[in-house]
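Structure first, sequence second, as always.
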């Protein structure tokens, strides 16, 4: 249409966070054995976590190691950032640090980071089943989500390597990730 009217074809440059949302959804669908469709985007742990969140908080034995958060994030982004550091701590030390339970985020089809928060919270009870997806969320994915979103060859290569087991997410990365600085 643009060519036929003598205009240059516009270049589509996707928002890196939208690409990361899509990648997260594809990884979670493959890892958790689900194919989610709008408006019912749920995994095995979502409804149970929402219904039993207060019980989870009351039963949880908090660690004593405090994670100082100087991220500057607010609300559910701050909770996501905190939860990623909690899982990293658990992976490194084999125990949980002091955990700040907050109000659960609203679930929205457009905000996959809320699913990431729920997966990480469910990790407290279902570590074995959620370990791979939570480690992906808390490392390769979070490192890009909380970055300045400028293209770096090493960031792309690390994310590409982390996505090797997830073919559809890898295709998404290669097709949509903006490679210009």
């Amino acid at each position: 249409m643009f060519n036929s009217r003598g205009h240059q074809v516009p270049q589509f440059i996707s928002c890196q966070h939208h690409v990361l949302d899509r990648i997260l959804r594809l990884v979670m669908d493959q890892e958790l054995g689900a194919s989610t469709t709008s408006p019912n985007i749920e995994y095995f742990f979502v409804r149970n976590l929402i219904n039993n969140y207060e019980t989870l908080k009351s039963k949880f034995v908090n660690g004593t190691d405090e994670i100082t958060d100087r991220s500057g994030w607010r609300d559910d982004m701050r909770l996501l950032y905190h939860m990623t550091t909690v899982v990293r701590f658990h992976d490194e030390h084999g125990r949980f640090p002091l955990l700040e339970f907050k109000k659960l985020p609203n679930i929205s089809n457009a905000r996959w980071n809320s699913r990431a928060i729920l997966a990480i919270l469910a990790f407290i009870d279902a570590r074995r089943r959620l370990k791979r997806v939570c480690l992906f969320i808390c490392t390769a994915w979070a490192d890009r989500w909380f970055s300045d979103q400028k293209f770096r060859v090493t960031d792309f290569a690390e994310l590409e390597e982390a996505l090797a087991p997830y073919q559809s997410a890898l295709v998404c990365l290669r097709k949509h990730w903006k490679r210009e600085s």
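Margin note: DSSP finds eight helices and no strands in the chain.
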